[in-house]
Amino acid sequence: MLDIDGRRAYFFGLEFWPQEIYFLAGLLIFVAVALFLATALLGRVYCGFTCPQTMWTDLFMSVGRLIEGDRNRRLKLKNAPLSLEKITKKALKHFIWLVISFFTAFTFVLYFNEAPAAAADILAGRVGPWANAAVVLLTLSTYLFAGWLREQICIYMCPWLRFQVAMFDEDSLIVTYEEWRGEPRGKAKIGQSFDGRGHCVNCNNCVLVCPTGVDIRKGQQVACIGCALCIDACDSIMDKFNLPRGLIAYDSEDNQVARAKERPAKIRLWRVRTFAYGAILLLIAAFIAYNLALRENLEINVQADRAPYFVTLTDGRIRSGYTFKVVNKQRKPRTFVLSLRGVEGAVMRVIGHGGDDAASVELDVGADKVGAFRVFIKADPKKLSGKSALIVFALKDKESGETFRHNAMLHGPGRKTP
Length: 418
Ligand code: SF4
Ligand code: SF4
Fold this sequence. Notes:
Immunoglobulin-like
């Protein structure tokens, strides 16, 4: 769930703050490289088997088949004059398409809101204009994309199609027509001999089932989304003619050449490219897992004043200002004790929290809140190891006793203000 108002993201039991956006970046890079790997191995499997546009188009087409029948019946109904049966079937189909579209939009909106409450609010019409606009827009776009535009989205609008063409190589397994076996093609009768001719019986079934209207026998085309429907269609024809399946099959370009020359064909899944993608995936996964494991329930941010770095007091000590922020990621208020380490005799004043020259100060931070404090540190410049010295902000959780540290620089005489 992405809670935009509360500025949080939730992934099962994990809660992410805006400061942890790098997890989202890591996840997106992981998914992108996984797509590269899948494409290098198996061509456009993403488009054919997981892309929402393909899935929703399939679903809408299934509804059409259920109500209007197979392709021949649908064509007959389309060309038939207006009748009660035609109006009823068409109206029912479009109504179900709209219901599916509405639930798609509804589900999408729930990714941005606390689902059970938001679901009740949407159904009761108690939501604001943005949620209503999102539901209406997404309902209409789903209905339009999956019901009407279908493969036009893949062919003319999808940028992924253009990338993918560059990701294949001669060893990628893609949907291919085994031309060496199919040609010369021609009509055939069941039981006839196929000696001296190809196995393609020119039935055109592979073209009829293709959602993007591709004739795979003409070779690879950008419009082919790798859905493999033509493989199933052709296999059923091969079965009827008692011929081996696989006239259209997942195969590599290299294998096709090898088979045509009657050389042994072999599938090479692991190549330099796929190893490289696999290694990058492992690295990203390790990075995410490592950072998740080291996640703390608190974050400290210290920003030193830069103009000036310090001022010299009448007693000879220097004083530097800092903005000190504590991100309490727990869902309960916490009290901390702030102290300084690293520079002998350094004391502080936290505006609004206690008096001057304190060795430690108690700070309260609300549940799930960021506490921001102005801290002024005073120190004897002779105690600094150089022009600047490392000073440690040590923050101890009073309840758990856990101590968090953050390093900052304390600048002294000799260090020029930029
Ligand atoms: S389905 Fe198979 S046999 Fe029929 S036209 Fe296509 S490739 Fe040829
Ligand atoms: S050619 Fe085959 S795999 Fe490609 S889109 Fe058409 S049916 Fe799907």
